[in-house]
Amino acid sequence: MQIQFHGHSCIQVTDGAHSVIIDPYLTGNPAAVASPEDIHVQHVILTHGHFDHITDAAAVAKQNDASIIAVEELAIHMAKQGLRTEAMHVGGEWKFNFGHVHLTQAVHTSSISTSDGEVLYAGVPAGVVLQMGDVTLYHAGDTGLFGDMKWIGERFDIDVAFLPIGGRFTMGPKDALTAAEWLKARCVVPIHFDTFPPIRQDGAAFVSDLARLGIQGRCLTPGEMITI
């Protein structure tokens, strides 16, 4: 399995013929090195409706004839754009042809801002446990620390966890360290930081702090790929 980090909270997971992207935000992302046209996937998973997670969802889905997997209200919004969707809800799980998806809680909000300034409800935010092949990934989405992360770590044998560390809009490094201890993932990758000034953080320092707790971490640069 190959995992490619596209910057901010966007990751692409490829296992054989199957490729899935989570929270595609490339257009307007100052850290991104890829464009929507570079992305070749069969499925798009969205954690919530904020612009820095869905900006390129429709473009990627259309050019690949890919389906969008999201919480029902967000899926309905995407379906109105003529896209194929798979609606789910937090706590729900489903086996797709590429693997197994379980949506978890995330402590955040979810909305869509229209071009005329209207803010639309986009359902609840979610985290994603993605099992493809023999690998289990956890993408926390945008979230603060919450106690059920302990349960997620008990329920799933997580190989890689992607945790936001930006602070201000999500948990910061200190709470993310606690989350990493609770999740017991074999590797932790920081996301949702450094894209904009309000979420400046030191990813390398976070990884060093993980090491002091006996936890392996990787701070990926946009475009970087790892093999599991």
Automatic annotation (TrEMBL):
Recorded GO MF terms: hydrolase activity
Q: Which PANTHER family match?
A: UPF0173 METAL-DEPENDENT HYDROLASE MJ1163, UPF0173 METAL-DEPENDENT HYDROLASE MJ1163-RELATED
Residue limits of the Metallo-beta-lactamase domain? 7-192
The text of the family note is: Belongs to the UPF0173 family.
Superkingdom of the organism of origin? Bacteria
- Sum up the protein's function in the record's words: Counteracts the endogenous Pycsar antiviral defense system. Phosphodiesterase that enables metal-dependent hydrolysis of host cyclic nucleotide Pycsar defense signals such as cCMP and cUMP.
Organism from which the protein derives: Paenibacillus zeisoli
User: Which InterPro entries does the UniProt record give?
Assistant: Metallo-B-lactamas, RibonucZ/Hydroxyglut_hydro, UPF0173, UPF0173_UPF0282_UlaG_hydrolase
Upper taxonomic lineage:
Bacteria, Bacillati, Bacillota, Bacilli, Bacillales
Instruction: List UniProt keywords, sorted A-Z.
Output: Hydrolase
Catalytic activity line of the entry:
3',5'-cyclic UMP + H2O = UMP + H(+); 3',5'-cyclic CMP + H2O = CMP + H(+)
Pfam families named in the record: Lactamase_B_3
What is the official name of this protein in its record?
Answer: UPF0173 metal-dependent hydrolase EJP77_11800
